[in-house]
């Protein structure tokens, strides 16, 4: 991992995870994480815009905001728990 060029994953969270093999293996084994990560990437559902294009959407419903916040908290907690693997 060290002394290698780093490819910019741009806004792709899953690509960023793939660049960290140990963390990615742990992520793949946690189906809840993958579900919540998908909710972060597509807060309005997979058939709508991703989180980058969300700024052009007028407003999300309170249910969507609550689900997104729940997913954010789960992913944040998972990252904190796996902090050692990230460093």
Structural write-up:
The radius of gyration is 14 Å and the shape is globular. The mean pLDDT is 83. With 87 residues, it is mostly helical. It has helices at residues 13-18, 21-28, 31-41, 62-81, 83-86.
Give the key terms.
globular; 87 residues; mainly alpha; 56% helix; 5 helices
SSE diagram, text form:
Blueprint: H1 13-18, H2 21-28, H3 31-41, H4 62-81, H5 83-86
Q: How would you characterize the largest beta sheet?
A: none
Low-confidence stretches: none
C-alpha-based Rg, rounded: 14 Å
The proportion of strand residues reads under 5%
**What integer is the average pLDDT?**
83
Helix percent band: 55-70%
What is the gist of this entry?
The protein is mainly α and 87 residues long.
């Amino acid at each position: 991992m060290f002394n290698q060029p780093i490819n910019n994953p741009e806004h792709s969270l899953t690509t960023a995870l793939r660049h960290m093999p140990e963390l990615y293996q742990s992520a793949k084994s946690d189906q809840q994480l993958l579900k919540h990560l998908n909710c972060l990437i597509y807060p309005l559902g997979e058939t709508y815009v991703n989180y980058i294009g969300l700024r052009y959407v007028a407003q999300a419903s309170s249910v969507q905001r609550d689900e997104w916040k729940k997913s954010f908290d789960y992913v944040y907690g998972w990252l904190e728990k796996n902090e050692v693997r990230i460093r």
